[in-house]
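[step 3/7] inverse_fold.run input=structure_tokens len=426
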């Protein structure tokens, strides 16, 4: 009898595609660090099969190995057999969420985070103001200097914690920003959830870049969290409610495209059709969803760009490169910036350790991955590290602060550097 119960679960049609060749192993960050078969894509799939066939309990050991996966989907890119690993791990986590009893504190924390904080703009604003207080009161500097966080084992978690940017981007929701010059497209911008608080300036820069390239940009009312973190954690019912809300908010406007600047969100937004297979509007929504770089590379830049001196490199966000298969578009845009030298980053397909809340839940392993990443960045001698996802930005900024020996590189979203280049042309 299957060890899986009711609800979404890994299915034979998906896991039977694995031919156990092991070609994914060297592309898996957890296998590269731990060298354990049970923490490789092949090993995890094997454990899912064992549970489904009733030969392994859906218990502590299974949960530990599933939890340790970054859901980075690097293995999907490497796999010659077309295994949709993301679908498998997310379904396995749905089973864990529904049928495994985590410790009480963890259950409370997950409930507060996934069902309350991420779904409530009011709570997010409150969280944002608390972060502003933490910084402005000097408490952050005091705690960092005192070594107290280290004593508590929280120094790594605090290092990658987001900062709040006032005014929050929430105030822009519901507005329409006109195109500069001739209007080529009417697009709807997806502002995210926490990004409204932690990446307000990045969202503004993205809107300006879209305007400057002939887009009227609406930020539709009624939108909210995309549900990506929920899907990754197996909290699929909440993700479905959030998806329905976003579909209602965006589809009504008759826009040419829906744009996000967050790779993690984009990957899930494009998979709403899988999340809501019986709702044809979900597939319609997903078809219109594009990453900002993907959209701009497709329609072509029309704005004037000015010089930006220095060397740039680019870290592929896992959910853009592996989740959405968007790799060339951001590079194409970066290479258009006058005077900027571009150097490829080694191991750019390997996760930086951010992975949603992974750097909080598994901070040791996430820090090891970040250390490796910053060593590759140092080899490029880049002045600016570019990426395309809020979580990666936070992680790489912490890396620049913690692991750069001399001059820490700037860490920016591709849209922020395009915006800077446009200002240099004025
Ligand atoms: S998703 Fe990433 S961490 Fe998980 S098995 Fe695949 S490569 Fe490894
Ligand atoms: S590369 Fe694909 S088929 Fe081969 S072991 Fe990994 S998941 Fe299975």
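[step 3/7] decode complete -> sequence:
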């Amino acid at each position: 009898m299957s060890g899986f119960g009711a609800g979404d679960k890994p299915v034979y049609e998906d896991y039977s595609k694995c031919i156990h060749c092991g070609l994914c192993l060297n592309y898996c960050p957890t296998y590269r660090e731990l060298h354990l078969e049970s923490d490789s894509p092949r090993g995890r799939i094997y454990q899912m099969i064992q549970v489904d066939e009733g030969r392994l309990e859906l218990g502590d050991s299974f949960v530990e190995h599933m939890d340790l996966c970054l859901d980075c989907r690097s293995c999907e890119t490497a796999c010659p057999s077309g295994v949709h690993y993301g679908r498998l791990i997310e379904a396995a986590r749905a089973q864990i969420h529904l049928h495994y009893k985590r410790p009480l504190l963890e259950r409370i924390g997950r409930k507060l985070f996934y069902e309350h904080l991420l779904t409530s703009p009011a709570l997010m604003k409150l969280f944002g103001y608390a972060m502003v207080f933490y910084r402005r009161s000097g408490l952050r500097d005091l705690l960092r200097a005192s070594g107290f966080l280290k004593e508590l084992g929280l120094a790594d978690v605090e290092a990658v914690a987001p900062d709040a940017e006032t005014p929050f981007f929430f105030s822009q929701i519901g507005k329409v920003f006109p195109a500069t010059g001739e209007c080529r497209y009417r697009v709807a911008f997806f502002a995210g959830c926490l990004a409204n608080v932690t990446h307000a300036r990045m969202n503004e820069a993205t809107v300006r870049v879209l305007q400057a390239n002939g887009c009227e940009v609406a930020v539709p009312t009624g939108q909210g969290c995309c549900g990506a973190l929920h899907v990754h954690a197996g909290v699929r019912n909440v993700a479905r409610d959030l998806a329905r809300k976003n579909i209602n908010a965006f589809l009504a406007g008759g826009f040419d495209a829906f744009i996000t600047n967050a790779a993690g969100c984009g990957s899930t937004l494009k998979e709403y059709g899988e999340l809501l297979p019986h709702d044809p509007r979900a597939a319609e929504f997903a078809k219109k969803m594009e990453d900002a770089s993907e959209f701009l590379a497709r329609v072509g830049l029309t704005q004037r760009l000015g010089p930006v001196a220095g060397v740039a490199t680019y870290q592929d966000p896992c959910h853009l490169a592996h989740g959405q298969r968007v790799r060339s578009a951001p590079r194409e845009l970066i290479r258009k910036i006058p005077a900027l030298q571009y150097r490829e980053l080694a191991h750019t397909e390997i996760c930086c350790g951010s992975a949603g809340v992974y750097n909080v839940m598994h901070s040791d392993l996430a820090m090891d991955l970040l250390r490796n990443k910053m060593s590759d960045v140092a080899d490029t001698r880049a002045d600016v590290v570019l990426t395309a996802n809020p979580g990666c930005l936070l992680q790489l900024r912490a890396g620049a602060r913690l692991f750069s020996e001399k001059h820490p590189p700037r860490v920016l979203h591709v849209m922020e550097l395009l915006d800077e280049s446009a200002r240099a042309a004025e």
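[step 4/7] annotate
The domain at 304-424 is CATH 3.40.50.11810 (Rossmann fold).
Residues 27-30, 41, 44, 69-75, 85 surround iron/sulfur cluster (ligand 1) (CB under 6 Å).
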